[in-house]
């Protein structure tokens, strides 16, 4: 506050009245103080104001993806459990892939005086986090994907391996015409697609780009529409690899309209996948462990600021259940 007061040419009491939205400040003075606040990147620490002298905040912030997605909800669950084990609470904010909403969420968490940040970064440039007042110096760990423009710890799954494992599994069961549904993403699904391509080349198979469907949206509806187009082709694929759980659900809806169902391997598990008439084969990592590992890394960095920046890659595994094990031309409808 002293810096803001000097920059604005007012007393500290005036700055305090501005940040507390007092009506006793003239519009001209308020504008001058707010300009100084913006220039200096000042933010009020809401938690620190309530702490006793010498008491450090025991809260971390987390900006997650869409919490209606079971994957992110499970990641958050793991982070909360790891934080609680060390006496920390977690304040959750959601940005839903909106760069401006993400930036506002980060500012709000920093205003609460969080000791560190867990961030599922959107596709924008995060160079602003190295600016004063925008997270500079606050321990931060990226979750599920790295951020562009900044160097921070990141904890993520081996997405390239996921695409390779899924494709090799389908190849092993005799499939060479494999359709791929790819959700829009600046990182994760792109690496899963790379794993698919590498597995196909490694097996001496040509990749038919007509069967690689890059969707405009990562919704189940978009996947259903796209999958219907693939399955309506005269040279329809005998197998599908879906790069997110939402796309898997869309593909399953589309498959109801065709007499012969393709084999299917999806990325990421989803509720009741093993309870369907033909249980769904997936490649997946442990989402709860992803959150746990990220929070554990953040808490360690809070204690040891000079740790080397780390990229922690968690494994994925194949969960065979039936849908990915059908040979070409097998009519799975007869098993439903």
Provide an overview of this structure:
With 336 residues, this protein is of the alpha/beta class. It folds into three domains: 2-40, no CATH class; 57-157 and 288-315, Rossmann fold (3-Layer(aba) Sandwich), CATH 3.40.50.2300; 159-285 and 318-335, Rossmann fold. 39% of the residues lie in helices and 15% in strands. The chain has helices at residues 2-8, 12-19, 27-40, 46-50, 70-85, 99-111, 159-172, 188-202, 220-231, 245-255, 287-303, and strands at 59-64, 89-94, 117-119, 140-143, 153-157, 178-182, 212-214, 239-242, 263-267, 281-284, 311-314, 317-319. It has a six-stranded parallel beta sheet, sandwiched between helices. A six-stranded mixed beta sheet has the order 7-6-8-9-10-12, sandwiched between helices. It is elongated and about 80 Å long. The N and C termini lie far apart (68 Å). Mean pLDDT is 88; it is low at 45-55 and 331-336.
Characteristic key phrases:
336 residues, alpha/beta, Rossmann fold, 3 domains, six-stranded parallel sheet, six-stranded mixed sheet, elongated, disordered C terminus, DNA-binding transcription factor activity
